[in-house]
Amino acid sequence: MFILVLNESNITPDGLNSELVYKFPNSVQFKDKYIAVSSIAMFYSWFNIISTSSNNILTYTWTALGNTTSYNIVIPDGLYNIVEINNLIQFACIANNTYWINGGYNFYPFELLVNAPRYAIQLNTYLIPSTIPAGATIPVGFPGWPTIPQNSQVGFPANFNKIVGYSPNFISNANLNNAYLPPNNPSNNDNFVSKSGGGTISYLSNFAPQVQPNNNVLFSISNINNPYSQPSSIIYSLSPTVNVGQQIVEVPPNFIWNKLIDGTYNELRLQLLGTDKRRLKINDPNMTILLCIRDKIDIANL
To answer: How many angstroms separate the Cα of 161 from the Cα of each of 65, 84, 127, 205, 209?
Structure first.
């Protein structure tokens, strides 16, 4: 049995840190050879929200004096949970001056939260009054109140919608003059769950949220031809069991042997793919991956 060690020195310098190339000192002839992952040590450092995946934007509206403005909230590339996304929403509302202060607390037009019993992400939109509430203060630059009470319309564009589990291009109801009465005037009624007397409307995911779309890392290696797999080069799947930023250490209890295509080799190329089968962007290149190669006869004698 032969051991190949791949680490940071084997990473292709393209900024993604998800392709490792092992170059043999000399060309080698492989005949009836099998390969398997022996051990993995790497840090959980790939993002769930990335601009290149177009899953980093949500929208909301604010109506003042009859004019409706739509705001884009652009989430910087990162690894976020729903609480952190909601914090960014509040930060954007403060930056846009679309909030007010009452009793020492900031009031925002909407929020996202986890509804664990329903295995869903809950969106709450709040009725924005047409006049300043008693005792409230408004920030400098406040755009003004709507002429009639209404809720901000929150939109989840395609791809971000998967993070929160809503239909593509979902838009919440404006609830003009607090008159929204589902199902008589439905709007995205597949997500609506309740409306309070005070005009708060709640929506829930209608499919399982994919807060971390790439919860598994697929190991794809060159010179493998598995006719039962797509792509045919997949030899292993890694599922993190640690928190973000912590080290993943995995030693398979049993090796999964995959036959290398017979031929002459000067290198092996390993790629780390997301569940969408595209290369991941691994932020921390500090990793060590051990691969084992052995003869067919050795496997038969195990």
So the answer is: 30, 16, 23, 9, 8
Give the residue from 156, 173, 204 where a domain finishes: 204
Look up residue 107 and give its two tokens: 């009031």
pTM: 0.86
Q: Give the model confidence (pLDDT) of 7-49 as tens digits.
A: 999 999 999 999 999 999 898 998 999 999 999 999 999 999 9
Contact 279, 246 (CB under 8 A): no
Contact status, residue 121 vs residue 205, Cβ threshold 8 Å = yes
**Residue 209: inside a domain:** no
Question: What secondary structure letter does DSSP report for 196?
Answer: -
Mind listing the pLDDT tens digit for each residue in 117-126?
999 999 999 9
**Cβ pair 102, 133 in contact under 8 A:** yes
Domain of residue 247: give its range.
2-46+214-300
> Phi first, then psi: what are they for 163, rounded to 5°?
-60, -40
Coil vs helix vs strand at 297 = helix
